Amino acid sequence: MFVYKEIMAELTDYNHIRLLKPIVLIGMMGSGKTHMGRVFAKKLNQPFFDSDKLIEEKAGCSIADIFERFGEQKFRTVEANTIQDLIKQGHGVIATGGGAIMNEDTARMIFDKSYSVWVQADLDKIISRVSKNKNRPLLACENPKDVLKKLMEQRQPIYEKARFRMQSDSGDETESVTNTLSDIRAVAAQEAKQ
Ligand code: S3P
Questions:
Q1: Which listed residue, 81, 104, 110, 168, has the most CB atoms within 10 A of its CB?
Q2: Ligand 1: centre distance to CA 192 (Å)
């Protein structure tokens, strides 16, 4: 009886489960993907990648400069390649730019080859976060709130395909990450049995 109890405890404690796919965070600009991504990576002791940051490092200039000098289309091509290469590495935590899921191949890879997490936040919270940062060319306009609303309408049906969802503005971020991680581990445990 004691041994049975011990084994059951071990089977229901998913902490030992090794994740065989990366965790990919999707969601609107300013929803908190980068911040949450770092918290996930630290908890898992895995590397953290931010697609925008990697693109800026590769290009040697800011996202705003890339939009201005080369146009959005070129940015989207580099973004798709960067994220797809990261997913192919098969591990780590990846924060993606808010529009990345509009590329069909990238979206397919995210939903098929990673634990996808939609990071959600209230629109007002998003506005207050993005207004502090000038490196978002799509919002360099008269009414960024209207732009964000429109983008959200277009993107929501795709964000909704994420396997997991988390709120980044619910107060206790560590608790949100811990809960999402335990959901991910439960799914990973199921997958390991298949
Ligand atoms: C964009 C989001 C940005 C960045 C670029 C375009 C978008 O990333 O990739 O400015 O289309 O939503 P964050 O979501 O990290 O702000």
A1: 110
A2: 34
